[in-house]
């Protein structure tokens, strides 16, 4: 009882709104200073409401109805009524409105033994709703021959069903909320509430079918069954949710049309009265027939159904209509469900569906999504269903459509740890409770938590979920903390559920870690389903990583559940796990390696992405492990070390190499530095942190620095210098467009020292550059930098080094148009700068002719290009996806730009650039090519360049042909930013579309073809 001497104020009771005092006086519960005698418990129950002000406003409206005096009298003595009424009115405006519209329903909240904790009673609810529409509950079920039919039809039936459904909902919700209004009242578990909501949905569909049968008058022999899927099928329904169904009817033939009309009307009646009925999970979705025969369903699922369709069937159960037909449907299709994990694309399909769901969440809502966000309800359901499908093939104890029942069975069978299963179930119940409360408020479908700054809404949610302040934090703080804690726990357990038992299968784990031990066969089945093509090999790697009692093995056992989960989402988990084992063994003596992975979650996540995508990265990583530190983030901000300025890198490399005492030591240092930089660039590229322009600028800069520093080291070791020497970059190196697998195309020019003949100078310079080449290409653990001088005059038959005068004479007497074209990319990159400038000045009139090139030269370039296209494309290559020589590929775009330069750079100095993209932009600026055409060519060039880089990253060796299918294609697409679990065909379609458009421009601009 409340003590009147305490001086209790309305503010203490949470009633601070204007008019609260007057309303309570009018109700006779408050005398201005304290509760009226006999009303103390009423006031305390009102104060415990999730929103006392909202509840009081609803009571004020209810007091205007005829039953109020009886309600008021009962409130003074009926503890159950007080708890249910005030909690319901403060938690749900929709149910409050229903009660006020139908005030006689207040008795549904009065205390009786059943209402203290209502038992699941499908038969009672079904009878109530059938009676509401005038159907006989004792008749056979609607949908069967002679089944019950309603006497009410049309709008009258809908209104009656809606009212009866809301009555049932009011009774269930008030029992669910009762402990909020009075902690002494029983607490309904959220899974019991969800099961009874599913029962209520079944009852509503049965009544809707009785109405539809009365309106449609189907033939007596027609049998129709309604199969529940989703949450209704699993008996875990929300307060507000679509009810997923499929319809099956017998016999077929001419009666199919009648069955379709009947099913369609069922959906409409239930949708107008109770909830949306969604039949889009039926075969062929919205485009498919609404109703099929049993044989029609079986044929579809055997021949055409996709993986996700079998996953949906996991929860299938008959919920209305002909029970025998419904049972026959489930019995016929269940065996197909439990075989789906044997499909080759099983895990990819399931993960792709999960990825699509997450991607459809607006970015500003992801952190508040109870259902679809990271650590949300769908993560629990996804994990449980995947494990069911993997192991349910051989264990029928897992054949449950209910998430919590299935999770308990997985724990009981040893497929997940007991503690992990219990913790995941607890988090799932907490999240479902919040979801239920959010939906109850206005009976609207929502899974979105209130915004962080909406403290009133958060306070209401916390109170309606029976959350209390803990002495340090108010209810809002406790709610937010609990939500975040449970979301984190779900995310963590989502990883552990799949992989911790695998480790138990290959190593001895102590304590709670060993409570879920899979047999070797079960471990292989799980790995295969989760994306490993070679489960036996994967288990071998796990044994190698976790075997023994060393500290490293212990850390690996703690890390691997997370790492394996990340790997399973990569394009090639098998290669990734092998690479991780090799890297771990290579870095076994590196003290900070495992500690970094353990303590820096971002490093572990990114490393698995890299290893599961690229063959190049693990190769480089074993000798450049320090790059791992660059994968860390600080407060979500990327380390600047991963995206360093190329000029800074070049200076640092040359400075480091200059300290070495011999050419051999210098080149070893330069190549080691290049390995480090290639790995850094590759990591930044694969993680999507740099654009393609930055990639080739960085690669080009480091390649130039390696050549320059090696040349400097060789020259320092020479006892006498007989000439000055300059290295001219050609091809992609000269254009500043090096890719991961590019050779260094160069030419060499020398000038004799004073008193030295041209012959002796050339011989000395040749010896120097040959030594540079040998050092750069010598066997070493570090990647070689092949130096290619075949673009020099006379090619391989010509001298390696020439003087400036020799070059001038050659080009004047024998130079051909293709050699002038090659010189368009010539640029000094190392050696004597003055000589390099002199060489550039000498070749400028050749590559930028004052009057352009003759028509015959244009024809010759086109002829050479056509011959290259015809003769150099490898046998069996696909011209539509060959990045270099394919349609709209690199050669197409580059030759087009170079032709424009040869024709116009003599008059337009702006075109005098070695860069393809700069030349293209300047050509567009000068009006030599339409802006739209220039854009198409640029996009084609960028796409082909990026794809070529991705091939090298994925395969670990240069290549120009895109993979046609398989994991390599998936990895190339992922390296280019496409979803790892998505359809790589989307990437191929995009590539072909972009390059096809580029080719159309090439045909007009380069070849001069019209139309």
Give a brief rundown of this model.
This protein has 42 helices and twelve strands. The protein is mainly α and 1011 residues long.
Per-chain topology:
Layout: H1 20-27, H2 40-47, H3 52-62, H4 68-75, H5 79-91, H6 93-101, H7 113-116, H8 122-132, H9 154-181, H10 190-216, E1 223-228, H11 230-233, E2 243-250, H12 255-273, E3 277-278, E4 291-292, H13 294-303, H14 307-313, E5 317-321, H15 323-337, H16 346-359, H17 377-391, H18 403-412, H19 418-442, H20 455-464, H21 475-506, H22 520-529, H23 535-546, H24 551-568, H25 573-586, H26 593-599, H27 601-611, H28 616-621, E6 633-634, E7 637-638, H29 646-658, H30 663-686, H31 692-717, E8 723-729, H32 731-734, E9 744-752, H33 758-777, E10 787-788, E11 801-803, H34 804-813, H35 817-823, E12 827-831, H36 833-847, H37 855-871, H38 890-904, H39 916-925, H40 931-955, H41 966-975, H42 984-1005
Helix pairs in contact: 2-5, 3-5, 3-6, 5-9, 8-9, 8-10, 9-10, 9-12, 10-12, 13-15, 17-18, 17-21, 17-22, 18-19, 19-21, 20-21, 21-22, 21-24, 22-23, 23-25, 24-26, 24-27, 25-27, 26-27, 29-30, 29-31, 30-31, 31-33, 38-39, 39-40, 40-41, 40-42
Protein model, in words:
With 1011 residues, the protein is mostly helical. Among the domains are: 641-847, Beta Polymerase, domain 2 (2-Layer Sandwich), CATH 3.30.460.10; 855-1005, Four Helix Bundle (Hemerythrin (Met), subunit A) (Up-down Bundle), CATH 1.20.120. The protein is 58% helix and 5% strand. It has 42 helices and twelve strands. Strands 1, 2, 3, 4 and 5 form a five-stranded mixed beta sheet that branches. Strands 8, 9, 10, 11 and 12 form a five-stranded mixed beta sheet that branches. β9 (744-752), α33 (758-777) and β10 form a beta-alpha-beta unit. α8 packs antiparallel against α9, α29 packs antiparallel against α30 (663-686) and α30 (663-686) runs antiparallel to α31 (692-717). The longest helix has 32 residues, at 475-506. It is elongated and about 125 Å long.
